Amino acid sequence: MTSSEEFDVVVVGAGSAGCALAARLSEDPSLRVLLLEAGGSDDVLEVQVPAALHKVWRTRRDWNYTTEPQPGLGGRRLFWPRGKLLGGSSSINAMIYVRGSSCDYDEWAELTGDPSWSYEHVLPLFRRMEDNARGADRFHGAGGPLRVEDPRSPHTWSRAAVESAVAAGYPRNDDFNGATQEGVGLYQLTQRRGRRWSAADAYLHPAAARPNLTVRTGALTTRVLLSGGRATGVEYRSGGQARTAHAAAEVVLAGGAVNSPQLLMLSGIGPGAHLHEVGLDVVHDLPGVGGGLQDHPLVPVVWHTRSGRSLFRAESPSGYARWFGARRGPLTSNLAEAGLFTRSRPELPEPDLQYHFLPVKFWRQAEVDPDVDAFTAAAVLVRVHSRGSVRLRSADPTWAPAIDAGYLADERDLDALVCGVEKAREIASTGPLAAVLAEEWSPGGTVRSREGLRQAVRETLESLYHPVSSCRMGTGDDAVVDPQLRVHGVDGLRVVDASVMPTLVRGNTNAPTIMIAERAADLITGRTVDPALTGTA
């Protein structure tokens, strides 16, 4: 027996975008909003304690995806953690608040043909959503839902990394989201007083008591219901029962770069030949669904240290005492405390490399706990030329999709990451870091030749967990949604999450994903944002 309910808007996925969108839509008391989340509650200590983020990975609060064997990595499969709980990946990420470069959004405007995606037009949305501890200015907002703070107890090695990069000739930058992105400094974080501040904390929990907002956890959406070329609702499974939720106005998919294209294809929307392969009827042949996948790859450069305590000792009785008491100490760390944006080649117009400096051994995506005190400089490629795809393995919605990240499919990515390793070594041998670090553990000090480094990159490359573009926004044949985030050829259906990004931003993707949700809320409700906005709406 299938139970059925009526709403105005049904939002699928309570991640970064879904939480923000549902909360913003429910500000209009005339809209009945349903938010469906396949996972459960975010009310667990491992979510709240910043340094415990990896303890949520590979648990029932993680979709626990793995890529297909990657030819560019010698056939290795990479683990992709994706949050399966309220807040989605904002409840299990490293909390880094980076928007990307202003040029990224100007490129979005060019690629979509819509100037409202330019940096000038999205900056007020970023300001509206932000509650920056430093206060409001031209680039930042105060009083918005998303708390953004400086690290409370940064490790001495993180400060040493900043000083060493400055000594190596890189400019100091205290605000990667300000006038310029290039340079080195400590990251700002989505935290409030040393505690994670996810999209659920920022948007959903404050809105939970609204009578027009219904939130269902443990609800796996299995397909979008379509009639006469229009989305009319969704089917989902909850408590062992099949249920139906009808949407009088819109269905919005906010499942992220893996789950949104998966759900479209399960609903018969996607590349026709592929849907036939897995035994699905083609309702709407839309070739771009699941294509054009991009992700930020990283290469960890790891050193042993001469003395001192790394963050692998953070979970001590004194560490917990400081966190529970004053919300300070090593457990407030997001692990990747300091960062750098720079160029692999001086002639590039914008940075294509980002660094995460971690006062801990980060290896094999935290599959094994650190065993020694060590320091990691993760060289991340943020201008990616390689492309991958998301495809169905089965018409069964409980099967994980096939993820081909396409790592190093384009040789330019490999060359840039080799430069990234070389620059990490230069920084490590300069300034105060040189006195902290001992021998290089990976790739290893003896690996010096260009070919040796290329091979080391292939053997040690990991994901920074920033998949985007699998439901790309645009107007071409391979675009999935239009600049208003409406699925091409289907009425009443939008996609609102990282999958719609026309291309990867230069930096971490959580803040841009929330901004997309803010934009979507305006598009759905008809609200406009004042370009002169410096605080909240």
TrEMBL record:
The keyword Flavoprotein applies. This is Choline dehydrogenase. GO terms for molecular function: flavin adenine dinucleotide binding; oxidoreductase activity, acting on CH-OH group of donors. It comes from Geodermatophilus siccatus. Pfam families: GMC_oxred_C (PF05199), GMC_oxred_N (PF00732). Its cofactor is FAD. It comes from the Bacteria. Residues 83-106, 256-270 form the Glucose-methanol-choline oxidoreductase N-terminal domain. Keywords: FAD, Flavoprotein. Belongs to the GMC oxidoreductase family. NCBIfam families: PRK02106.1.
